[in-house]
Write a structure and sequence with these properties.
- By secondary structure, the chain is an alpha+beta fold.
- 37% of the residues lie in helices and 19% in strands.
- It contains 16 helices and 20 strands.
- A six-stranded mixed β-sheet has the order 17-16-15-18-19-20.
- The longest helix has 18 residues.
- 41% of the residues are buried.
Length: 546
């Protein structure tokens, strides 16, 4: 199987089962009803429906696939195939189908117990679809962008039970989802499997439609504007006033019943001020967020392994993903652990090049061990963080040229503008432009007056590298760039300022001029032009929120 290992993308550890796991851990399966996809499709807006239809066609239009005589060694036990059949997820087949598929299970931990998850790797279909130009559109944002919702009065969550199994495979396409068990019998899936390249997008779109997300459905079917709705593949969360959240929850449950959607029993059925969602512990009463109890337990176990001085390569990769996720929740700047990140990036690169196996034991040097230990402890000790209410107070435009740096500070309440800037030293002029942009970020953020403490600062840049580093909190390509951005972020953290970062085209960045000419050379006309550029950005939404 082709895998792309990345510490920035992976947060859950799974592995192929060992013999003892196969005997002791159950298969994660449930007899859920197939949802009424036609009813849900009718609620989608025009853009969503067109994209959904195209993705559905790519998934189930299997006429171009050609029967293959090649066979792969199956890892699926016959008893698991029979369990799939008993739950309506698979049925017996006469022989090979249109493509070669590889069935297997992976072991994962759920609520303290091991279980096996069934995967059907439809590798031939996946290769054909990706060769045709398909790229998944699953708009999952950085966890930090979801945290504002803690200031709502309450929230309510929903989670689809065995969500992928709620999507029925059309009868004419089932022979493209065939596989063989270890007894030599042939089977075909009747429900959408994990392992198909289009499955996550289909699931996310259907879940967002069920939830009434305004980006996905017609206006008449969207939740009220006063309710914030977040979807994460097959999970839903509403946030808002108790009245509005209860009404949105009632409507989604009514739609779920009509469209034959099955929720998990453990969902937050009523409006609640304390619950967990996407690894975050939400406390609406205090306005604080923290890492969930499950994530805390996993990190505590990881800390024990780190202190032993050795971990598996996959375990370290997963630890990195967990630390990045947890750090974003509780406000730990990952750039402070630059060399630990560097070590994890080298590890994932080695995995991608095939130089290390996922189950290979990696010995930790004393310095790496101390860094990882300190990072885990920093996250676990912080535990909870207040989220600043997003009341805009200051917008800071930042730019750099090879000559100098410039900044334009705009008070949101008064529209007062302050222009900053200076020339680079001879040493600084030898830096890469991205490093200069990062230094400009640090200098402009450091100039934010103390009166904005506790408020919100929106930094606007025209450099996507700095934009990305400010969002992630770290850069592994350049320590100079990393340190400059982390210094700026640390300054804002000490002022209890909530940061958002936006992008603007270089031609529309008012900070461009002071980065190129001395402040003394800026005329009244130049000031008027910069003020116009500021107004155009603030009123015309020329930038992109990250």
């Amino acid at each position: 199987m082709r895998q792309h290992h990345s510490v920035f993308k992976r947060g859950k550890q799974t592995r192929l089962p060992k013999t003892e796991d196969e005997k002791a851990s159950p298969l994660h399966v449930d007899n859920v009803r197939p949802m009424n996809v036609g009813l849900l499709r009718g609620r989608m807006n025009e853009t969503t429906r067109a994209r959904f239809d195209e993705t559905w066609r790519r998934t189930f239009d299997v006429a171009k696939l050609r029967p293959s005589s090649s066979r792969r060694v199956s890892r699926l036990q016959a008893k698991h195939a029979e369990e799939l059949e008993m739950n309506g997820i698979a049925q017996r087949a006469s022989g090979p189908g249109r493509s070669v598929n590889v069935p297997f299970t992976v072991v994962e931990e759920k609520e303290g117990a091991l279980r096996q998850r069934f995967i059907l790797w439809t590798h031939e279909a996946n290769d054909a679809i990706e060769a045709d130009g398909y790229e998944a559109q699953v708009p999952l944002k950085h966890v930090s962008t979801y945290l504002d919702a803690v200031h709502a009065e309450c929230g309510s969550t929903r989670d689809l039970r065995c969500g992928f199994y709620g999507v029925e495979v059309p009868r004419g396409a089932r022979d493209a989802f065939r596989f063989q068990d270890d007894a030599g019998d042939w089977w075909e899936l009747t429900r959408l499997p994990m392992g198909h390249t289009c499955a996550p997008e289909l699931m996310h779109t259907l879940t967002s439609t069920i939830a009434g997300h305004p980006d996905f459905v017609k206006t008449a079917h969207a939740v009220p504007a006063a309710v914030t709705v977040h979807t994460w593949v097959d999970n839903v969360r509403y946030a808002g006033s108790r009245k509005d959240v209860l009404e949105a929850s009632r409507k989604v449950d009514e739609l779920a019943a009509r469209s034959k959607v099955t929720w998990k029993d453990a969902d937050t059925r009523t409006a609640s001020t304390r619950y967990e969602f996407i690894g975050v512990d939400w406390d609406h009463q205090s306005g604080k967020v923290g890492i969930s109890a499950r994530l805390s337990k996993k990190l505590a176990r990881d800390l024990v392994e780190v202190r032993k001085g050795a971990m598996s390569a996959s375990g370290l990769e997963t630890l990195g993903g967990r630390l990045l996720h947890a750090s974003a929740i509780v406000g730990v700047f990952v750039g402070e652990f630059y060399f630990a990140l560097k070590f994890l990036r080298r590890l994932t690169n080695a995995l991608n090049r095939g130089e290390k196996a996922v189950d290979q034991t990696v010995r930790l040097s004393g310095s790496v061990q101390r860094l990882l230990d300190g990072w885990v402890r920093a996250v676990l000790e912080k535990r909870r963080m207040p989220v600043a209410a997003r009341v805009p107070s200051l917008t800071v435009f930042v730019d750099a040229s090879l000559e100098g740096w410039g900044g334009v500070l705009v008070d949101v309440a008064t529209n007062a503008i302050e222009v900053l800037g200076s020339r680079w030293s001879r040493k600084e002029k030898g830096l890469h432009i991205n490093e200069l942009e990062a230094l400009a970020f640090e200098l402009c953020v450091s100039a934010v007056p103390d009166k904005y403490a506790g408020g919100t600062v929106t930094v606007v840049v025209d450099n996507t590298t700095v934009q990305g580093v400010a969002r992630k909190g770290a850069c592994l390509r350049s320590q100079t760039l990393n340190d400059a951005v982390v210094n700026g972020l640390t300054r804002l953290r000490h002022m209890n300022i909530s940061l958002s970062v936006r992008w603007v085209k270089s031609a529309g960045n008012p900070a461009d001029l002071p980065s190129r000419v001395p402040l003394s050379a800026i005329s009244d006309k130049n000031m008027a032009d910069m003020a116009l550029a500021v107004r155009q950005f603030l009123t015309g939404d020329m930038g992109l929120v990250v």
